[in-house]
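Reading group handout, session on sequence-to-structure problems. Before we discuss, look at one worked example. The prompt was deliberately terse, the way you'd type it at a terminal:

> structure ABC-type multidrug transport system, permease component

The input record follows.
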Amino acid sequence: MNKMLLHARYQVLENLRVPMAVVGFLVFPSLMMVFFVVPMPGVADDPVYSTNAAGQLALFSIVNVCLYTFGAQIAEERAKPWDGYLRTLAAGAVPRLGGRVLNGLFFALLGLIPVIGTAAVFTSAEAPVLRILLAVVLLLAIGIPFLLLGLAIGYLLSSKAVYVAVQLLVFPLGFAGGLFLPPQLFPDWLDTASQALPTRAGRDLVVAVLGNGQASITSLAVLLGWTLVFGAFAAFAFRRDEGRRFR
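And the output record:
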């Protein structure tokens, strides 16, 4: 556990040394709130719609941080000799991967603050404090499968290819998962298909916790299923990278 915390600490410090990168993933989701929710009186002035929009964009912030930051970061680190040296140390993979997950959850938590602040100041979004705290905890838990997916992409692809792959994943997952438009506006076929996506399952759970929907056991099962799939994918990618670069 101490080694895991040590890895997490140094990874956090390494990210903070590049303030522009941190600002980028902190500001981007709140900018979407400013451009696509705040100027729309029908959404911004309605407590239910604006609360749901804030929850959806908060989840998008989590997905964005997990895939962009960690997929790209791992791919870049793999190209450096220092990463190869770390992989040969006796500590093994668990402290490093665990440190990355803790690091990801830390920055995911930071990314929620601008979205919540923007919703509170510029819209009619409202929810009891306890529900907001539960939603934050839930959002961090929902981020785990996306962190695992980011780890898998980072260990499978090069630093040049990873950005394209993440772009191809983030926006389709966000749109089809109902993070940009409420699923009630989807055609029937898209609404049915999106219920199998981790973003849609996470969105439905967050909206339910905020008090504007009903939690579904199906959403929880979908999320747990994708967590297992992405966990196995990340383990495969890690072992494949180890086998290709050194033994």
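Points for discussion. First: Residues 185 and 191 are 9 Å apart (CA to CA). Second: DSSP finds eleven helices and no strands in the chain.
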